[in-house]
What does this fold into?
Amino acid sequence: MLQIRHVTKSFPGVRALDDVSVEFAPGEVHAIVGENGAGKSTLIKIICGVYTPDDGEVLLNGARITLHTYKDALDRKINLVSQEIQIIPKSTVAENIMLDKLDRYLTHGRIDWKRINQDAARYATMVDLAVPVRQIVATLSAAQKQLIMIARALSSDARILVMDEPTSALTRHETENLLALLRRLKAEGVTVLFVSHKLEEVLAVADKVSVLRDGCLIGTRPIAGLTKAQIVQMMIGRDARTLDLGRLKVDAGHVALEARSICQAGRFHDVSFVLQRGEILGFYGLVGSGRTELAQILIGEARKDSGEVLINDKPTHIHSMADSLFKYRMGYVSENRKEKGLILSASIKTNVAITIWNRLRDRLGSIQLAAETTAARKLMHALEIRATGPSQVVGSLSGGNQQKVSIAKWLAAQCDILIIDEPTIGVDIGAKEYIHQLIWNLASREGKSIILISSDMPEIINVARRILVFKDFKIVGEVRNNGEEGAPVRGYEEVSQEIGQYLA
Amino acid sequence: MAQSKVEHSVRQDREAGGIGSALRSVFRRSDTSVVIATVILFVLFSFSNTSFLTPFNLFNVSRTAALYVFVALGQAIVIVTGGMNLSLGAIGGLTVVVAGWCMDTMGWSPWIGVPLAMLTGTLCGMFNGFIIIKSKLNSFIVTLASLFIFTGLVQGISQGFPYSNIPRDFTILGRNDFLGVPYVFLFAVAVLTALAYVFKFRVVGRRILATGGNLEAARLSGIRTDNIVFLSHTLSGVFAATAGLLWVSRMGSAQPSTGTDWLIISFAVAIIGGTALNGGEFSALGILASAIMLTLIKNGLIMLNVNVYFEQTFLGVIVLLAVSVESIRVALSNRTKRTKTDAS
Ligand SMILES: Nc1ncnc2c1ncn2[C@@H]1O[C@H](COP(=O)(O)OP(=O)(O)OP(=O)(O)O)[C@@H](O)[C@H]1O
Ligand SMILES: [Mg+2]
It folds into this structure.
């Protein structure tokens, strides 16, 4: 039994937790939900010894415990899958999985690599990670890295397993697998703490849910009998809107971007597609199906061996993101905000304005600091980024708010073509709606052409109006859900089934 | 909603504001401690030693500090992009030797010798930068190798002998002054001011800092990070060459041994001056203060009759101290920030 009693924790300018008391019983999956910046990760970090509370206490089996580091938590069999991906890029999958227990594999002073790889492979299979354990981690996708972190936590026989948005980058298949795993752990008497913005998962797996809002605990309820709407009501203090974006008017005559017979050795073979102007084109597929990899080729981050990319019917020469942005006005919101999207040590201002410094210059070429602040303020307001101000360092924002900053930066850039890779990873339900609406408006009002890459089926069906289904680096199907002129868009069930057929 | 709560506390922060918050923001700056330390040291020296405040001594201190500024800039400009330049001193040495060879051996005027020497230093920096971006090796390995390459050239060309026949005209910059302030010092302050402006207001400066902050993210934001890394190493070469030439101008002779102690000096001044070791942060004021501080310390060691042969040991210890003080400062300022917000 793990008890949190009257815990309070403040950071400069914010009270992240305010007199919070919760209990977590063995054999219980306990979900913690709340908006971005509500204090979920802070609570979790206190349980795992990453932060010490300013006030209040943590009790384990009735005895008060004081944790100073994560190691202290590990010693008490409390294990964490953190929200931010923490892996060692240049090591192998196996090393990353066994990271915190390599010392157990010492025989006569030597590390038994064979046994490590074997054991690691077992946990990799458990989480459904289909990558050789000897592979170097650096080039894996965000989802695969997330699976590695889950496997690492599993391999420690935790009694209390703490997971901060473990499924944010996973597709449905991997998620279901993980939920099944959690049920098994629960049967073995493990306490599972589960933070998620995906309420379907919470309803599917949790026994209890605790809701945080503005650092305060709104309440803890048994899941039985609770509906999604009720949870949302507790989270945001009002009812959720249902977002029906309707039909998208696409400028059918104009092609914004066309990829012709893209080939890349060992990956793509003769891949072609067309993006209309003012269209939202979805890339759907399982993790590792080649969606992000194709985007990398489009923006010049990866080389293609042959094939052509045309923008506005003209052949392009894109060798870097700089070419893409400044010559062709094409932007890319990365799926990996921490490593590729943001400069965590810099301010919100810097991160938002980085693509538009050129435009913020006065006649003598100096950047106008006031204009920079204004630009950042405007987007912070538009995206409801919760921060103490434009000068706050991005690394100290909550995960969801960091994600908003990484989107804000590309909104500032005002590109004609925008490739958006998993825009709502770790974003709360209200903000998610907001981002969907925003993407929609970019296309429908401003005529921007958008490629939306997402592993979230509802997201892709709700927002995209034509979906390319990816499998093993091939486009295996195209689903049009925009409907005919004058007719309504196609229903969710019908579209998701059609996508399912292509993936089968 | 949390929004209002955040705004609320921000408002409180501002209202509590005035001197308190101004002080706090000053203490959060990475260069505050070094400025304070330098001032304290200066006052201490003024009181403890009568010969310290003499114009002659101040002239010397400011001149040496100015040279250190250039040496440190050579290092800082690559550190801010997340790299380092181990060959800095060797580039300086090579510049000195080329300058000496031109003006002494060949008897050319400084108008030819100086540009050629500057060009040499610049090319050395470009060489480092080029290899780093093309080979994708890190700057440690590349500049370690070029350190040997350039050092070999220094020794090969000079055979270890100094060039002492330097035109008198050329020593004006290194030896003369304006109202008692050495030209070199004015020059250093001008360059620092320009850099402070560039890092705050110019796109290129911002891009250099962004590259140091997170190279991948910078590249994916449309910054040509290869160009930035190349540029920073080129500038490193330029600063090394400048420092080398000023050294010649000051000494009135070109010593091939110039630059052998720059490695520790450049890191010491840059780090103590608040250049973040993992890139992305730069402080002109900090570098100026730490250059002065280091000069004062060296000056002090001499006055205390400490054996000069142990000097490097002291410098090493000072660097260690500076880095530890820095991490303590960060920890402390986090803590005070926290308790302050609690109180409000
Ligand atoms: N190290 C820190 N320094 C300063 N402020 C912080 C720090 N960590 C968190 N905060 C602030 O505390 C608040 C709560 O953050 P927390 O990370 O717990 O939110 P969260 O509920 O996990 O949100 P998300 O769903 O976005 O991950 C936020 O306003 C955040 O900006
Ligand atoms: Mg969080």
